[in-house]
Amino acid sequence: MNRRQLFGAGLALPLLSINGLSAETVKRTRYPHPDLITLDPSFGGFLGNTPIEQLYTNTSMYWAEGPAWNGQGNYLVWSDIPNNVQYRWLNEDSHVSVLRNPSNNSNGNTFDLQGRQISFEHLTHRVARYERDGTVTVLAENYG
Question: Measured on CA atoms in the order 142, 103, 128, 88, is the torsion positive or negative?
């Protein structure tokens, strides 16, 4: 998967959950998708070269958010905040599995240069890094 495909796939997660686009409508559609409405004209004028591709359908998922690509592991991570779950999509076989349950109601996710996941957790009010050995390092928990 190249960067352009990843960007399209990552954007599809929150858009599919928020706007309720049907699986039939969005299997693989070129951007801009006819069901997506641009409210701010500064977002207009994009070239139609980024496909939006539906990677996963789960009717129990409330809010898919915080997609992050792990280039070392070749997988996509995202969070379902209300259900307190993080999912992982594997590029090699398009398999989706639960990565963390519970996930401390995380939403923002990213990876550092060593491939360790960093998540912003609502439940614990912290920014946490998940180490390779399974331990958690708290990067920020309070201010001042």
Answer: negative
CA distance 77 to 70: 8
For residues 4 and 91, what is the distance between their CA atoms, to the nearest angstrom?
14
Query: In the CATH scheme, what is the code of domain 60-144?
Result: 2.40.10.500
41-96 tens-digit pLDDT: 887 666 566 666 778 887 788 888 999 999 999 999 999 999 999 999 999 999 99
Evaluate whether 64 touches 103 at the Cβ level (below 8 Å).
no
Going by C-beta distance under 8 Å and a sequence separation of 6 or more, which residues neighbour residue 3? none
pTM of this structure:
0.68
> Could you tell me the residue ranges of all domains in the chain?
1-55, 60-144
Contact 85, 79 (CB under 8 A): yes
Q: Are 82 and 62 in contact (CB under 8 A)?
A: yes
CA dist 70 and 99 (Å) reads: 13
